[in-house]
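Q: I'm writing up a methods section and want to include an example of the input and output format. Could you take the sequence below and give the corresponding predicted structure tokens, formatted cleanly so I can copy it straight into the document?
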Amino acid sequence: MSQPLSVVSRRVEVSNPPPLRNSYIILLSEDSGNSSSLSDVRVVRCSPIVEPYHGLLDRHFNRVLAIQAPEKRSKLRHVFNWVVSVWRHVNDTLQQHVDCASLIGPTQFMSCPAEVDSAEEWFLGLWNMTLTPYIIATVKQG
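A: Here is the clean output for your methods example:
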């Protein structure tokens, strides 16, 4: 009898293009027999529109806010909430035109700087250099 499944803490990104595809969790069972058996591998797809992935960006930004000076938190909270709403809006729009496998995960948005002035420049670069080309290519592919 095999032991319960254990979680391997690695994220595997699906290619095409690598930085924007969804993540997967790989589960392996610990078996006393043949440890290389592929029958013991389970793959769970994580979609950005369901928990726990859906709230990951919010939780990340809340952790960032917790270590900021109190006088910076209000403005940063506004910026972070806006970034989260943009991410969700982009995915809602993509979901209307393509399948769920083409949605954008939160990792692209986690690099938002904790400085209000830097965040605007960061977002413009992300939008123009990464998101827009991806959205156009994905919608064209259907």
